[in-house]
Amino acid sequence: MALFDLPLDQLRRYAPEVPEPADFAEFWATTLGSAAAKPVLIDVRPEPSDLALIDCWDVTFAGFGGDPIRAWYSRPAGRSEALPAVVEFLGYGRGRGLPHERPTYAAAGYAHLLMDSRGQGGQYGTGGDTPDPGGSAYGGPGPVTRGLLDPAEYYYRRLITDAVRAVEAVRALPGVDPSRVAVAGNSQGGGLALAVAGLVADLSAVLSTAPFLCHVQRAIDITDAEPYAEIVRFLAIHREAEDDVRRTLSYMDGVAFARRATAPAQFGVGLRDTVCPPSTVFAAANQYAAEHEVQVYPFNHHEGGEAVHVRRQLRWLCSKLS
């Protein structure tokens, strides 16, 4: 893919007027308050990781509406002290898979909670284990269009709430230092990490790479790539629904969450990324309210910096959690 978005010098200054609803803060305070009324941990049981140096547990915690959300909890084998923790969120269409698939953070010495994404897992990887009991609201077939006409019924209201509850869950697990918790993710996972950064006031660090659902109004105008294309297809059929769709998406936009963040953050972006266009990432990064940096990969698409970026993330994360 050739460069298609704004030049880098313009991207570094790009801070558009992304509107947010007047009741944005109230909407999320009410949503999270309802979720917090239920105890967070439901079940924790040992699970073989098949990795000699990593111990693992199968965790179930209460997410949106008290729905059971599955997760893998892993940590360096034989370590009993309270460790800093990384809560990781997954990309669109991917489930938590098998316990040995994502050993990086545990191998780096952290406690690691990998949250399953409700109702996903059928597009990539090795599947998921968490249904979405609230997934019957009117909308399209994919998660990004489920309940799209009403923010109260929208899929991402549930998933973002799950992500906030995942932070509460990791803090309740044995062997975690609750004062040192970071969130991390790529694509959809990066968008969730950014949302949590705006909703949880006492995180230690945020890793958000190619975050999805940022400056959404621009994204659906400039890219035909999935999953934004699902929204475009929905509107191509439901032509009268545009105002309702744009209103719903405004409650989930990463720019609004970025404006409320308090933890230091590292962003990553590929300048040829059509899945999460660079201008949408910079729109959030440039309005991020706390200390932050952006790692830029001029010749990369949605894969970004891959292992090079992971090394940069780990070195930066060590400086924040050590």
Automatic annotation (TrEMBL):
- Tell me the Pfam families matching this sequence: AXE1 (PF05448)
Q: Where is the Acetyl xylan esterase domain?
A: 1-319
At the top level, the lineage of the source is Bacteria
InterPro entries, from UniProt?
AB_hydrolase_fold, AXE1_dom, CE7
Q: What is this protein called?
A: Acetylxylan esterase
Q: Give the source species.
A: Hamadaea flava
